[in-house]
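Ticket #4471: complex job returned nothing on first submit. Input attached below:
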Amino acid sequence: MSQRVARKRGERVRAILTTAAELLGERGYEGVSLEDVADRLDVTKGSLYYYFASKDELVTAAIETLGTDWTDRLEALPAGGTPTDRLRALLREHIRIAVREYPAALRLFLVPDDWPEDQRARIKALRRRHDAVFRAVVEEGLRSGEFTVVAVDPTLQAMHAAMSQAPVWVRDDRGIDRLADTLMMLVGVVPVRPGSAG
Amino acid sequence: MSQRVARKRGERVRAILTTAAELLGERGYEGVSLEDVADRLDVTKGSLYYYFASKDELVTAAIETLGTDWTDRLEALPAGGTPTDRLRALLREHIRIAVREYPAALRLFLVPDDWPEDQRARIKALRRRHDAVFRAVVEEGLRSGEFTVVAVDPTLQAMHAAMSQAPVWVRDDRGIDRLADTLMMLVGVVPVRPGSAG
Amino acid sequence: MSQRVARKRGERVRAILTTAAELLGERGYEGVSLEDVADRLDVTKGSLYYYFASKDELVTAAIETLGTDWTDRLEALPAGGTPTDRLRALLREHIRIAVREYPAALRLFLVPDDWPEDQRARIKALRRRHDAVFRAVVEEGLRSGEFTVVAVDPTLQAMHAAMSQAPVWVRDDRGIDRLADTLMMLVGVVPVRPGSAG
Amino acid sequence: MSQRVARKRGERVRAILTTAAELLGERGYEGVSLEDVADRLDVTKGSLYYYFASKDELVTAAIETLGTDWTDRLEALPAGGTPTDRLRALLREHIRIAVREYPAALRLFLVPDDWPEDQRARIKALRRRHDAVFRAVVEEGLRSGEFTVVAVDPTLQAMHAAMSQAPVWVRDDRGIDRLADTLMMLVGVVPVRPGSAG
DNA sequence: TATGAATGAGAGTTCATTCAT
DNA sequence: GATGAATGAACTCTCATTCAT
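Support reply: We reran it on our side without changes. The output follows.
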């Protein structure tokens, strides 16, 4: 395969993955048919099989795209400031992306048990990289004494669970901030002027 | 209809609902077909329609069964002790049920938008009742000054999100306790000897 | 079987047939399920099979009831007057019954080809008796010279077809009269003051 | 889509519609399943959904095909002659088509009440166009004084009802002519040598 | 006699997958 | 590379029919 052809193929694949990621992020696995993906790309269903062997393969790759993009954006946040500031920024950005772009994200990362090990592994890796971003800041905060946790793992897991569910109840920017502040408490950071409003 | 027959029918309905709840709790709405439910009950698909008018009806009733049972067990916990003790007990029990019995429960309570209003309402009511159990304790803790929160709603939502996701990563009793303690931090209760183990 | 029991059975059968005839007259064969019939009788589906071997049997018998009742009422019309008056009265009464009570009658008498010969024969006999009522008057009118027809059979058939379809377009009493007058033309009786209004 | 492909698709659609129209014309809506249509085309049920979104859509389109074809043939009849001659020709042709090709046509044009408005409208339009052919001749005959009617609407309706029912009793060409002549009486045209043969 | 329960065939529909062109 | 077409399995739902009690 010539380089030119390979490049072209790469572009095509990327277009498919981006589109699929969008749709999956909006409606989740069972909510998206290959017809939907093809339609939005102005292509026919059959064509997708030229690039991917099955729906699962396509979905896995698309989730990879989506997850990578997501993590990239978190990593691109400014590095300076205290762990507290950086964690809060991370939380806000994460929630913002979840709410605005990938409302169905939660469902996506829960891969069905009967998928091939290969694909499960790829998504696991994705989660790990994503997780590392948060873990680094939390651990730094622990070292500096700013943070207190029962254990790192459940803390991170609780954070992610809450953020993924956010699209269900968070409506506006104020909701995002309140949720971020609430999650800061998981590392022992109590906001300056805590309230008790419903 | 004679009493004896009515009782028998009740039993049958309960058997169906229990079975359906189990399967739904394991695999979620789209993961369960009526064939699956019928198979596990050793009857044919069509028979289910003798008791329920549609899949949605059956599923709604099953979710109701599952949710009511769940909340009942939380409400049955001993009433005494400080809010801190009671919230921790609630969290532990909730996580235990989620992990051991209804690993896919999370997805269940997110009712599809296109369901009949009637059924949406029933499930909403269920969620409200469930929520009230936690809310009462949290508010008591706030009044007594034991708890601190940014706002009650996101706190409860984060708790529930984390607990529902628990089946994915929690494996043993220690995991349950660590998660419960972690979530206690959402109300500002820091454990006596906080650690930092991964 | 004692006489008392036989009588009771007869009553039950009649009740079923009347109800079935009603429903069939309203909605036609495919529009009525045994459940519908049973429901309206406050009985269960299964019970019907104690009296009838199959849906077709029940339907045939019900059509017989309906058809007999219908013909009875036509025969009960006053005998006096000219053939013209009597035919017009017959037409009006027939249309009235079709429109008000058995809007789906047309479909009913068109028995599916694959029904057992026995049942086809019974319905044929019914139609014949019904037909005889009109035929008698038409033939009398022909003998008396009041009527003119191309041939008796197609005349009668056209009359019946039009009357059976009447429920689709006839709305009020005026519609009934206009249709009856129109059909009188089939025997050469032109109304005194013919119009041409749509 | 290339022209060649579009043409091929058109042919396929036409084949489906023709087949469906045939079956529908024979057995009516409820008497035809998609399986039946697919079988006769030597394809599987699912394939039909590649061309039509639902049974109703397919049926509507098929009825449209059938109805258009029918009306086309009536409109193609020679235009000359008196209204009497032309109406008789129309009646004969209409009955011939009904008897030979679409014996169940009657039921087809009675669209179920719960169909989407869109489809009801399409079939209504069809009926209107069909009706117009007869109405034009009848009105011309009225203007020229050849015809006499009670009212135009019931006259046309009675004609159509009788013709649609014709397949039930008309057997041969003589039957067709006798029925046509009989229906001419609805507009006051009495045949030259009226008989009274049964 | 009648009931409640269950069955099984068949309906319409969806969709991942295949394949000749 | 991509398309249009077709497939076949799975799904929800309906209903005439059977049968133990």
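The mean pLDDT of chain C is 91. Closing as resolved unless it happens again.
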